[in-house]
């Protein structure tokens, strides 16, 4: 860690990168990304589901109205005549009158005919552990989706940074080839002039022509590479593919992001949240053994033939208790399944920790190698420039042949390209390490 910090601090002499433009692009990418918008919709949906689960604790009030007509079907026979006619007959004899009439046996329909019932029906759970644990699970699922969003955001930030560095790399490659083209064209002009004056043979002219053609082809390839890099970067930002990209001249590599901090990785938080959800699923399954208590109340009117009077009004209230005594060990086996799932998640947490540590260690080593490679390539570039200057002077004085000049110029181009590649490879390696360490502040 100390060695890597030293390398990074040493690298600050070469990098001076203020990421103001890049930070703005990252913010734009996070705001415009369609996948992030979709995940936010899912989070909002989960929040509404949580509110729905919370509403289950509240009473439910419903207006209920029924009207029935009936004929036929089952009846209740009431033997009023058989019971009262003998008594009435005796009373008529005693009173010597017909004051007590003869009654018929009655047959009443079970289904009420021409009957209405209008009421306000209220129910409310008083004790229900399923509702309690369901609410907890809903809340944890919402948190889980937020963590999944953060994971995607970190991946997007990494991809935006890498795409930006590759675009800068391609732009610098174009500049290098343009400078090289200017040099070889000047060589071409000088060689043609020397050939006209019989100072050199045709071979040097032909070789200079070939170098111009080669550099022009390389330049065209570099431009196409840059166009592709620009298009991909703008794609990540969800904007027009040919939109201009602002480039900062200063680069500053923050050395404080070196320390290992994988405990903050969202992948571990995600698994931890999944384990907590599984624990509540366990409690939810156990709650099937607990009693459920609820209350209800009806307030309304009911009568035949749409009559409404004092006797039509009524209220009806009570408590309902449900206790599952036996279910064929169904819940027992469900609990076994949940317990095995918990063991699986614990194993996954241990495995992911090792994977994340490995990822961070590899990204650290890659960054160290990239920085050391840049240091080496930068020194070779400076040496190649000095060597090219010496050979160019000797060539103009006639003390060096063209093949030596060409070799010196090719060394300049190649070392500049290598330094450019290793420079931005260092930034790419840093972006990879930043992702492995979850160091980027998503809220800035």
UniProtKB/TrEMBL annotation:
One of its GO terms (molecular function) is porin activity. It is found in: Cell outer membrane. One of its GO terms (cellular component) is efflux pump complex. Its main location: membrane. InterPro entries: OMP_efflux, TolC-like. SUPFAM superfamilies: Outer membrane efflux proteins (OEP) (SSF56954). Pfam families: OEP. Keywords: Cell outer membrane, Coiled coil, Membrane, Transmembrane, Transmembrane beta strand, Transport. Residues 335-384 form a coiled coil. The keyword Hydrolase does not apply. The keyword 4Fe-4S does not apply. It comes from the Bacteria. PANTHER family: OUTER MEMBRANE PROTEIN TOLC (PTHR30026:SF20). Belongs to the outer membrane factor (OMF) (TC 1.B.17) family. This is Outer membrane protein TolC. It comes from Chryseobacterium rhizoplanae.
């Amino acid at each position: 860690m100390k060695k890597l910090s030293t390398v990074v601090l040493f690298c600050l002499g070469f990098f001076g990168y203020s990421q103001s433009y890049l930070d703005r692009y990252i913010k734009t990418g996070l705001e415009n990304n369609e996948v992030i918008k979709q995940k936010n919709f899912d989070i909002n949906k989960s929040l509404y589901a949580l509110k729905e689960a919370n509403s289950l604790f509240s009473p439910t009030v419903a207006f209920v109205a029924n009207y029935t007509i009936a004929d036929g079907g089952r009846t209740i026979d009431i033997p009023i005549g058989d019971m009262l006619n003998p008594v009435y007959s005796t009373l008529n004899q005693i009173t010597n009158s017909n004051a007590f009439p003869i009654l018929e046996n009655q047959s009443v329909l079970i289904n009420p005919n021409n009957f209405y019932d209008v009421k306000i029906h209220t129910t409310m759970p008083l004790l229900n552990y399923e509702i309690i644990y369901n609410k907890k699970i809903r809340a944890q699922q919402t948190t889980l989706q937020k963590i999944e969003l953060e994971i995607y955001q970190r991946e997007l930030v990494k991809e935006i940074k890498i795409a930006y560095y590759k675009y800068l790399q391609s732009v610098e490659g174009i500049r290098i080839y343009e400078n090289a083209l200017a040099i070889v064209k000047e060589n071409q002009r000088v060689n043609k002039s020397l050939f006209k004056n019989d100072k050199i043979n045709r071979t040097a002219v032909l070789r200079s022509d070939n170098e111009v053609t080669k550099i022009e082809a390389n330049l065209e390839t570099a431009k196409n590479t840059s166009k592709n890099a620009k298009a991909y970067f703008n794609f990540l930002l969800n904007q027009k593919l040919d939109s201009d990209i602002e480039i900062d001249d200063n680069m500053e590599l923050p050395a404080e992001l070196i320390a290992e901090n994988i405990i903050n990785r969202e992948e571990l938080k995600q698994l931890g949240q999944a384990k907590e959800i599984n624990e509540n699923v366990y409690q939810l399954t156990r709650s099937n053994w607990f009693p459920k208590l609820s209350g209800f109340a009806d307030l309304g009117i009911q009568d035949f033939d749409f009559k409404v009077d004092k006797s039509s009004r009524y209220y009806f209230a009570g408590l309902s208790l449900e206790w599952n005594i036996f279910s064929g060990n169904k819940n027992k086996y469900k609990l076994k399944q949940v317990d095995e799932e918990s063991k699986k998640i614990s194993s996954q947490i241990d495995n992911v920790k090792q994977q994340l540590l490995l990822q961070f260690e590899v990204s650290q080593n890659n960054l160290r190698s990239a920085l050391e490679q840049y240091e080496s390539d930068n020194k070779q570039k400076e040496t190649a420039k000095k060597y090219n200057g010496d050979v160019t002077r000797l060539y103009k004085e006639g003390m060096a042949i063209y093949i030596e000049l060409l070799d010196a110029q090719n060394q300049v181009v190649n070392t500049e390209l290598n330094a450019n590649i290793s420079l931005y490879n260092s930034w790419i390696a840093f972006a990879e390490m930043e992702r492995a360490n979850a160091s980027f502040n998503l809220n800035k």
